[in-house]
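User: Working on a comparison across species. This one is Suppressor of cancer cell invasion from Anabas testudineus. Can you predict its structure so I can line it up against the others?
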Amino acid sequence: MCVRVCLYMCMYIVMTGAETEDDIPLGERKTVTDFCYLLDKSKQLFNGLRDLPQYGHKQWQSYFGRTFDVYTKLWKFQQQHRQVLDSRYGLKRWQIGEVASKIGQLYYHYYLRTSETSYLNEAFSFYSAIRQRSYYFQVNKEDRPELVVKKLRYYARYIVVCLLLNKMDLVKVLVKELSEEIEDYTQRFNTEDQLEWNLVLQEVAAFVEADPVVVLNDNNSVVVTSNRLQEGSVPPLEQGMVVGQLALADALIIGNCNNQVKFSELTIDMFRMLQALEREPVNLATQTSKQGTLEPNEKPAKRENPHKYLLYKPTFSQLFTFLSASFKELPANSVLLVYLSATGVFPTGHSDYEGPYDFGGVLTNTNRDVVNGETVQKRNQAQKEMHCLHPGDLLPFTRKPLFVIVDSSNSTAYKNFTNLFGQPLVCLLSPTVYPKSVQDQSQRGSLFTLFLYSPLLAFSSICGLNSIRRGLWERAQEFLRKVFRDIGQMITRSRTIDQAFLQFFGDEFLRLLLIRFVFCSAALRLHKLFRESRSFPESYPELPKQDTVESTLLQKHILELATMLDVPSLFWDNAMESY
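Assistant: Here's the predicted structure for Suppressor of cancer cell invasion from Anabas testudineus:
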């Protein structure tokens, strides 16, 4: 029905003006009707994407494939018949931009569903071409606020892709342009969404400034550093070392921290963790230089990143649904990772028997868990908090290899696991108390997650540095590579370490996370500001401290790094003297 209406409208457009239908060549009339058919079909398929299940690996692929096919045909069709469409259909440049924007959105959502960073490059190519070719330039001259909103949304989506590709210089330019567009929009139209768009600007500005330390060139320009997994960044296994053959296949990245910097349903902690679980995009320079011959690429290069679900403030129902879907589809010899960055929920009383539901956990969203219009409340202290992911809630999923990271004020609740099924299980748990100087920075992201994302950035932060010169940064990074090799050997050579750690050690992503966790634990133990045991990370099972986080060799390395950064006085130096 929609297609028929669209075709009638196309014919009406063709026949307006001085010409009659007979004056217009049949071939040109067919070109316009074919274009209208493809345009309408593409809109139908694109709108249907929101009805696809967000979880599961297989259900959505064929639908995405059909949508890509139609948009590829539509894009090529408008390129081949631009002159006819300009004169007979009245094709405007913003309409071409809208098609390109939809293709960019398709690639971005395909990235979200596959975690393959090459699709981000494709999205960037289309978004970049829209700006370079000024497809939306004429929108501001039309008295149609809904068209200007399309342009503003395009900017917001382009900024998200640039953030994920670490194109921070371009992000700053786009934010400035978006600010000017919003100012023009709010002055020309009496709209109710001015505060909403101003909030978007504030969020992205805070996101860009979230890193506590910047790397500077000699001319004081900021160096953009990448923290995705790169060739040579993971310490290799020693020859003949026997570790598990498990591979990280799925990851749930959950963000539910109050008052943390966010942009587009992505908190800064989520943003950092998703990059820690991705490889550096392939051939970025060559892929982004093809904007002159822009074509939808139906089969970008395949990369082996773990599949990720990004859940911003999920309800318990949503979280459990995604967990179940990941668990169900987890391949053999694979690992499910659950990352929780969330506000802590503490038990209200003590019971005689302390089980996996008696220690609290982390908060899940309450907004959509309502009964008869009112949020369900606990009736008495004997009942457990229902809007909370308790350690016991994860027990069914320990039937398969499970790797848990908890960054929360109640992370230690997850020490109270029992490995019921004998499968590999490790939990890395954040400190629950930080010194005031660190706590004051918590809105810009957690220190624990920062260590897992960029150990040198986090180490520099606890040393009170605001900036670091590029040459020193590179020397410190090279030194850290040596430190990480030593930590890897400490883990694999320990005779008392729990075998679960070794079973996960064969996967590069998990190996690097474990090594960074040990480095974080050792650094905080030596730092003079971190005095309480609650300020140190913990793990389940426990690591043998003397072999790892309290190793004299590792302590010596940390003091050497502090000396390199000219801050040795911030750390206890008795380890150096006794080494």
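For your comparison, note: Residues 252-278+304-348+355-366+385-570 form a domain with the Rossmann fold fold (CATH 3.40.50).

User: Helpful, thanks.
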